[in-house]
Design a protein that fits this description.
It is built from 5 helices and 26 strands. The protein has helices at about 5-40, 50-60, 70-75, 105-110, 375-380; strands spanning about 75-80, 80-85, 110-115, 120, 125, 130, 135, 140-145, 150-155, 160-170, 180-190, 195-200, 220-225, 230, 240-245, 250-255, 260-270, 290-300, 305-310, 315-320, 325-335, 340-355, 385, 400-405, 430-435, 440-445. The N and C termini lie far apart (about 110 Å).
Length: about 450
């Protein structure tokens, strides 16, 4: 007579089946991840085109355009064509760093661009880059004073679907340099038929609550769905804003009529041209009038045109090439903090309109030729600058009085070419030192 299955054995089998059902998805996912990594290492599974584009943007900044990864290794297929990463290093020299890196504002003006052809899954590991956290618009800083030497990726939420969230935390060492980001992303998909614009910069991701934190050595690779540079359509006005902390505004890339241009704006202070004044400085602020010099350079042929606006010329218009610029706002300020050096910054806001067939008559006043004016009042009334000939101990390049464009330096310099005796200052007494800008002896300071 055959024996049946023992009750304890049957219970054990049932428990085993339940455990298998419960943990099977987890085991399958883990096995799939390991298997995918093995296949990728063997070259049997390649990263997606989007992942390669992210990798290109990252290494273009982190290692520079001369990196082997950028010049020879990173490539992807897009619309039936092989795209090489080094194609995105073909940018004007003004947008490259000292080591041929393209980061930050420069990378934003010349991002790595890709058309996402298929729904593409993204996670923290992209080829050989291990991102610490994936963030998006509604992610927020949870705790910690910053993140040193970390690698983040930020993806615009409009690109994402099938998002799996996580709380991205790193405890650090005994709590030191630990951080947490809430509402981060473990993995998600980027939807097909979207344009992605990718750039990398040093600093933390653009999420809530990161102001004033420490980001030493940390990079963020940002994936956006809107063109970050300016594309002008005929006769459709667009705002262009220049903002910088040291009077040298960032360079804007402007695309119009099959050509590219670089636009710059530099705020100039009248004190730069006044006798005895250090450039841009007069008792901690710049007196009126000050002005902004706007320049445009054609990438195609290298030609450059410049114009200027005074601070009280809001609403006035000028032209560069086939562009009309109208000044909306021009601001200049000077700030100091306890124990910190003075800090100058400027803000300039223009409206720019493109006329491909040429600017119609009457839209812009005729250009003034400053050199035609021969007396100071006519010169300054026309918005030009009156440069006096060399007088006393000041030195400039002019042999006679002359009317020049405001962006031309009158060249007044004191002390660079003359010694104290030549300034009739004699020898400085004990405890005093020579002050080249003021051409006098001042009290000695360490």
């Amino acid at each position: 007579m055959s024996k049946g299955i023992h009750v304890s054995t049957l219970i054990g089998l049932i428990i085993a089946v339940l455990i298998l059902i419960l943990f099977a998805p987890m085991l399958i996912r883990a096995a799939k991840a390991v298997w995918d990594q093995i296949l990728q290492a063997l070259g049997l599974v390649k990263p997606s085109a989007l992942e390669k584009a992210v990798e290109c943007a990252y290494y273009r900044c982190a290692e520079g355009c001369l990196s082997y990864k950028v010049t020879d290794e990173i490539e992807w297929e897009e619309n039936g064509r092989i795209v090489k990463c080094n194609e995105f290093c073909n940018v004007p020299k003004e947008f490259r760093g000292t080591n041929d890196e393209i980061c930050g504002w420069n990378a934003l003006q010349y991002p790595v661009e890709i058309k996402v052809e298929n729904d593409t899954e993204v996670g923290k590991k992209i080829d050989d880059i291990n991102f610490d956290c994936i963030t998006t618009d509604d992610s927020s800083w949870g705790f910690g004073s910053g993140a040193k030497d970390r690698t983040f990726i930020f993806i615009n939420k409009n690109l994402l679907k099938n998002i799996k969230r996580e709380k991205c935390e790193y405890p650090g060492v005994a709590g030191f340099l630990g951080f947490g980001i809430y509402n981060a992303i473990e993995k998600a998909q980027i939807s097909a038929n979207n344009n992605a614009f990718i750039h990398t910069y040093y600093g933390g991701p653009p999420i809530q609550g990161i102001s004033g934190l420490v980001w030493g050595g940390t990079t963020t690779t940002q994936v956006d769905n809107e063109t970050p540079y300016i594309i002008l359509e005929p006769q459709k006005p667009v705002n262009i804003i220049f903002l910088d902390e040291k009077l040298k505004a960032p360079i804007h890339r402007v695309v119009a009529g099959g050509n590219e241009y670089t636009f710059t704006a530099d705020i100039m202070c009248e004190e730069y041209y006044r006798e005895g004044a250090e450039p841009g400085i007069n008792d901690g602020y710049c007196k009126e009038p000050f002005w902004v010099v706007v320049s445009a350079k054609s990438i195609k042929d290298g030609k450059t045109e410049s114009t200027w606006f005074y601070s009280d010329e809001t609403g006035k218009v000028r032209s560069l090439f086939n562009f009309v610029l109208s000044l909306n706002e021009l601001h200049y300020d000077w700030e100091t903090g306890i124990g910190t050096p003075p800090y100058v910054w400027g803000y300039t806001n223009f409206t720019i309109t493109y006329y491909p067939e040429g600017i119609p008559a009457g839209v812009v006043p005729p250009k003034v030729k400053c050199s035609d004016f021969t007396n100071p009042s006519d010169c300054t009334d026309a918005g030009c600058w009156w440069c006096r000939k060399c007088e006393g101990y000041y030195v400039n390049q002019w042999k006679a009085d002359k009317c020049v464009d405001p962006q031309v330096d009158c060249g007044y310099v004191c002390g660079d070419r003359f010694t104290p005796p030549e300034c009739d200052a004699g020898r400085c007494d004990l405890g005093y030192q020579w002050s080249p800008w003021e051409c006098i002896c001042t009290m000695y300071k360490d």
